[in-house]
Amino acid sequence: xxxxxxxxxxxxxxxxxxxxxxxxxxxxxxxxxxxxxxxxxxxxxxxxxxxxxxxxxxxxxxxxxxxxxxxxxxxxxxxxxxxxxxxxxxxxxxxxxxxxxxxxxxxxxxxxxxxxxxxxxxxxxxxxxxxxxxxxxxxxxxxxxxxxxxxxxxxxxxxxxxxxxxxxxxxxxxxxxxxxxxxxxxxxxxxxxxxxxxxxxxxxxxxxxxxxxxxxxxxxxxxxxxxxxxxxxxxxxxxxxxxxxxxxxxxxxxxxxxxxxxxxxxxxxxxxxxxxxxxxxxxxxxxxxxxxxxxxxxxxxxxxxxxxxxxxxxxxxxx
Amino acid sequence: xxxxxxxxxxxxxxxxxxxxxxxxxxxxxxxxxxxxxxxxxxxxxxxxxxxxxxxxxxxxxxxxxxxxxxxxxxxxxxxxxxxxxxxxxxxxxxxxxxxxxxxxxxxxxxxxxxxxxxxxxxxxxxxxxxxxxxxxxxxxxxxxxxxxxxxxxxxxxxxxxxxxxxxxxxxxxxxxxxxxxxxxxxxxxxxxxxxxxxxxxxxxxxxxxxxxxxxxxxxxxxxxxxxxxxxxxxxxxxxxxxxxxxxxxxxxxxxxxxxxxxxxxxxxxxxxxxxxxxxxxxxxxxxxxxxxxxxxxxxxxxxxxxxxxxxxxxxxxxxxxxxxxxxxxxxxxxxxxxxxxxxxxxxxxxxxxxxxxxxxxxxxxxxxxxxxxxxxxxxxxxxxxxxxxxxxxxxxxxxxxxxxxxxxxxxxxxxxxxxxxxxxxxxxxxxxxxxxxxxxxxxxxxxxxxxxxxxxxxxxxxxxxxxxxxxxxxxxxxxxxx
Lengths: 319, 482
Known about the structure:
Chain A has one domain. Chain A is built from 15 helices and no strands. Chain A has helices spanning about 5-35, 45-50, 55-60, 70-75, 85-100, 105-120, 135-155, 160-190, 200-210, 215-225, 230-240, 245-265, 270-285, 285-290, 295-315. Chain A starts with a helix and ends with a helix. The relative contact order of chain A is 0.12. The model of chain A has no long low-confidence stretch (mean pLDDT about 90). Chain B has helices spanning about 15-20, 25-40, 70-95, 100, 105-110, 160-170, 175-180, 190-200, 220-230, 270, 290-295, 310-315, 315-325, 340-350, 375-390, 465-480, and strands at about 60-70, 135-140, 145-150, 210-215, 235, 240-245, 250-255, 255-260, 260-265, 300, 330-335, 335-340, 355-360, 370, 395, 405-410, 410-420, 420-425, 430, 435-440, 455-465. Chain B contains 16 helices and 21 strands. By secondary structure, chain B is α+β, with helices and mostly antiparallel strands. Chain B has a five-stranded mixed β-sheet. A five-stranded mixed β-sheet of chain B has the order 11-3-2-18-19, with helices on both faces. In chain B, strands 5-4-9-10 form a four-stranded parallel β-sheet, with helices on one face. Mean pLDDT of chain B is about 90; it is low at about 50-55 and about 470-480. Chain B is globular. The interface between A and B is medium-sized, with 24 and 21 residues. Chain B: This is Circularly permuted ATP-grasp type 2 domain-containing protein.
């Protein structure tokens, strides 16, 4: 297939996944910030939302203080934020439109339909920068549903060929990046230094993270005990059963890269790199990760992950 | 829909009945449904210079336009004749130029034409075919008089609307399809693909690789480009997806560079190759012309076909058909004054209020004057433009175009229509799917049907005439019972 087509499909998937992640982060943050101050009193929830979505720097360049309404606006509708949900959906649709030929009707309609729906939100207070909780929840539900529609139609209707494989690669690379970042942010921003690990503050913050990645129930099914940071790290990094875990993402990435290499008849740097990361994740234990330092481990992973994105580009996308 | 005596055309009997018995509210609901379908599928049309409406729907009318089999058969013969002659004309113009030597077409009309490409002189294109896809605009004047309004032989668009209009109609009014026997158009992409295959460079020696070349998603017809690539099952390339090395064209794919043999290009000559034509073209492919002239890739349509859809050349079509085929043109030309001829110019100057004056190189309804509808001031301004450069204009009488019933909020009203059938030429022959794109002027009395000027479209049905259809069905029944 055309390299540009593969590139567009790859980024289409990334943008949809990113929009979904942002919606989840906002949702979780909103819950967290609504708790009575005796439970969470740091006031850093919105800052952490900015950090985990990678938008903190851009936000600070625009505003001096962090306020819920501003953050929500910046992450949802702001034209200034290249990764706002609106921009993600806009870019996703532009990419989809460029590769109409590589998408099924259903997948195109999922994206195009969402884009039309998005236009309808533009008249709301929310889109005009006024924080309206009710509108916000309707909007976030819409975004989450969009990613489900996209994902579902792609899964159910697309031919299992390179078009599908490249779009899945985009999805899993983005998802791995998101999961890693939310874990990292928790460690840096959420927990004040004087707060005891495992205290009630910690509990709700970690629960918020699990909720953001739809893993709260999963946690209870897997561990059958109260929320503990190292368990969460185990779940989101090393548990293959958990669809957003780093290892599950890499399991998929390796699988789809292998599909491509077997269809094209040769392996390359992308395959080697992905399998290397997979091997590292398979051998890792939470104990080692915490000895090394969760932050250090995550930082190394994020770098590897982004390097893989570049390698895929160089190998297949003529960039 | 009606004849001169006010009677309903026989082919329209069932439609007339349908219109009479369907409540307007139901028609309105169908139209809303149609709009939703178009919007959802994303069938849009971009209008240049119209920022807010960068993706607009072309208004769609749910009342189909009907032609009988018999009428169509005659049109088809005329279209095939015309496109054959156009191809022979172009091969001659870029070859021995016999028609010029014979003085049947003035030579300066060719050599002074901005669409004439000297690069193509002496170039051997595969199978000597230049126009692989033609869109011929027709209008009905009298009872059975079809006239050719213009020949579009560069990159005619609209075929996706012909196909999607049919799909939408089949979803909206399945009962009407049961009652009529409508000739299918859905095999157009297959015919196009086989036409394109048939014109691949002769030495390919394997399954030819075909691709559609688009200026990109900001082009007004981008939807059509992607639609066609999809239906053909070929890649939709932009200039940046292609590269030329050693006069061979490749596309950049995930498996490396892949050779391309046939490009159905929807980019105008001027922008095709910055090395050969406009150096500022960002959408072209450097080196494409060299590869083309070396015979390593087929471009459909060929470079330089624009010289044949020039409105001044149009006036010579009866001559051209006679010269190459020794036949009388089956489809008539609209009587045309060539302003380059002093007598004609004088006449046009005096009769601006009753003529339609067009720029010979204009398209999409731009740069024209509709005399009877223009104000005095507009006519005066136009007269100055005309005086400065008379050879740049032709003039035609305003025609009594036929009308079709068209649905509006206020009810059903007649509106002027034209018809653009699409004619395919390959080494396997010249073919037309039964139908075409009917464009309809949405403003009362307006003669302008162009989509860039706010015109709409209708589905075009070629149907068995009533009596004949009944006969065939009766026969089929008796056959299945025996």
